[in-house]
Amino acid sequence: MTVSEMASEKPSDISISLYRAIWRWHFFAGLLVIPFMLNLAVTGSLYLFKDEIDKTVFAYRNVVEPRGEALAPSQFAGNAKAAVSGSKVLRYRSPAGPTQSARVTVGTDAGNVLVFVDPYSGSVLGQVGEKNEFNWVVKKIHSLDYFGSAFNRIVEAVGGLALILVVTGFYLWWPRKQTGGVISVRGTPDKRVFWRDIHAVTGAAAGALIFFLAISGMPWSGYWGDRVNTMLASAGLGYPAQLWDDVPVSNVPTKDVLTNAGWTVENAPVPVSTPGEAAQPVGLDQIVTTAKAAGVEPGFEVSLPSGKKGVYTAAVFPDDISKQRTIHFDQYSGKPLVDLKFADYGAGAKAIEFGIGVHQGEYYGLANQIVMFMTCLAIMLTSVSAVTMWWKRRPSGRLGVPPMPAQRSVFAVLTLVILGFGILFPLTGFAVLAMLVIDQLITRIPSPLQRVFS
């Protein structure tokens, strides 16, 4: 073989090694994330239609017949408190429209209870434990928060691995002179190539949207999301910290006083009220009236003061993110201490809130919901097809891990690139590092596992 012939074959060898290296990492990432991706897709599909579910399945407690003027919020709160023995009123959510009920959150020794009230008659329509409410459960299972913060960290790692899956998947799908499996599906369901093509074509068609769902979901993660929130606030790109410069604040974050605080403001400190001599709280009715007069969007929630220095907090995070609003009121004077509008957010916070709104199918109405729902279906299909084609391909009694590339240096370089990605998303980086260590231990130390993992 001449030198020129050897040179002409070298790029091909590198290309084959790179393909195998990417395939191997794609396999490892998929092996870890598929069960979690299925959970995210199923629960995410349900949460996309939370409003529709509330207005149909749970219409008995959420939908009312408009008739005349609504009663004062203090009456709703009193009726809700009376409906739950030994309770204390914590929060009040105003009706989002004339056909919507009001909601009062009351606290008991056994936990918080959501009480739904007809705003025209004041009658109690229904009640449910806060942690038993359907959409709350779906959301918490979606993030695995339902099972504790440790499981939420798993979802964060999965989000980063999903990004790796999309990028490596695009490389594996990219046409290399083949005619099938690019935009068409070959074979029949009993053939492996059919499931391979279903996986590749579906992943390629929805890959960009899957990537968007993964990256826009990362701000909710407990570790990475909190740090990005803090970083943006420190850089003046999150909530405007200067609004708190002349206001005494507590150590309580806004997320601790609201049922659902927006991402941007969830870590912002709650200010404190200044009690005067013989001062009395102004009352819920006045705060609701003031919030309405200030132009806060209907459907806002008001948290009641906790203690002598507590404040009333009125907040709303509607589908139209431009109408997000959070106002903290002094409980004695009723004056706003901090009034935070979406327009006050920094550029980073606005971008993330936009991503979150689209992620939840809220920003562009039904079209947004349908596109996100189709993306969830694509995740389910790619996951099922991946498992099916793997099952058909794997040798008996073995996992069928894609072979290590002939040029180990290619695999090493790719691994360094992926670990570099892990610097941006540390929990994903730890998961990748763990996969790498386990892979090397199994492949280098003689044991029965070598055959299983081959």
What does this structure look like?
This protein is of the alpha+beta class. It has 3 domains: 3-48 and 144-219 and 391-452, no CATH class; 54-139, Roll (Nuclear Transport Factor 2, Chain: A), CATH 3.10.450.40; 239-345, no CATH class. The chain is built from 14 helices and 10 strands. The chain has helices at residues 3-48, 50-56, 59-62, 73-83, 134-142, 149-173, 192-217, 224-234, 284-293, 347-359, 365-393, 408-424, 426-444, 449-452, and strands at 88-93, 102-108, 111-117, 124-129, 249-253, 269-271, 301-303, 311-316, 325-330, 336-341. The strands form 2 sheets. Strands 4-3-2-1-7-8-9-10 form an 8-stranded antiparallel β-sheet. A two-stranded antiparallel sheet has the order 5-6. Helix 1 packs across helix 11. The longest helix is centred in the N-terminal third of the chain and has 46 residues, at 3-48. The two termini are 33 Å apart. The model is unreliable at 1-11 (pLDDT under 50).
